[in-house]
Design goal:
By secondary structure, this protein is α/β, with parallel strands linked by helices. The protein has 2 domains: about 1-140, TIM Barrel, CATH 3.20.20; about 140-185, no CATH class. Helices cover about 35% and strands about 10% of the residues. It is built from 8 helices and 5 strands. It has a 5-stranded parallel sheet. Helix 4 runs parallel beside helix 5 (about 105-110). The two termini are about 35 Å apart. The model has no long low-confidence stretch (mean pLDDT about 95).
């Protein structure tokens, strides 16, 4: 299970000082803004042993902002070590280029568990980052939408299909199952 602390959803709105204007135990300094997230992780871990967390400290999706996303990510990385997370999944950038910074380096320095990175990795870059110990794994999001056979393409060094954002979240097969594959899947349309 992955707890979603990103994209301007509830937990993200508590974490970021651009949206969290509360006072009291859930507002103000980072440790207060992170309180709800830590409480959710603790509650979810009671139900299941393997819990991961997804964070996007730089992403400005849904108008999310933080005055110091690197400090936020660093504080969280320090304090997530004691939560028993199976993994921490961090997006390294901002789709909209509104916020900049390196969040992965301080997170890797502080978080002692499995670190998964995301956002725009090529196969070579992913392999290099994993080989250098900068991260433990890479999550390929949109590349999987456009390449149902992504693992095989990466293994073979085959070119990737370009994704079509206009079909993301469409109804029907457009954007989900209509991209070409290297080898037809059994039962796939011609």
């Amino acid at each position: 299970m992955e707890v979603h602390g990103a994209n301007g959803y509830l937990l993200d709105t508590f974490l970021r000082d651009g949206s969290n204007q509360r006072s009291g135990p859930y507002g103000g300094p980072i440790e207060n803004r992170a309180r709800l997230l830590l409480e959710v992780i603790e509650a979810v871990r009671v139900e299941t042993e393997l819990v991961g967390l997804r964070l996007l400290p730089l992403n400005s999706y849904n108008a999310m902002r933080d005055s110091d996303p690197v400090a936020l990510a660093s504080w969280l990385a320090d304090h997530l070590n004691d939560t028993g997370l199976a993994f921490l999944h961090v997006m390294r950038g901002d789709f909209f280029q509104q916020q900049q910074g390196d969040v992965l380096t301080p997170v890797r320095e502080r978080f002692k568990g499995v670190l998964i990175a995301n956002m725009g990795y090529s196969s070579a870059e992913a392999n290099a980052a994993i080989g250098a110990g900068a991260i433990d794994a890479v999550a390929f999001g949109t590349a999987f939408l456009a390449n149902l056979d992504l693992p095989e393409r990466l293994r073979l060094g085959a070119p990737l299909n370009a994704s079509n954002p206009a079909t993301f979240y469409s109804q029907g097969p457009a954007g989900y199952t209509d991209y070409p594959t290297l080898h037809p899947f059994p039962g796939a349309p011609p």
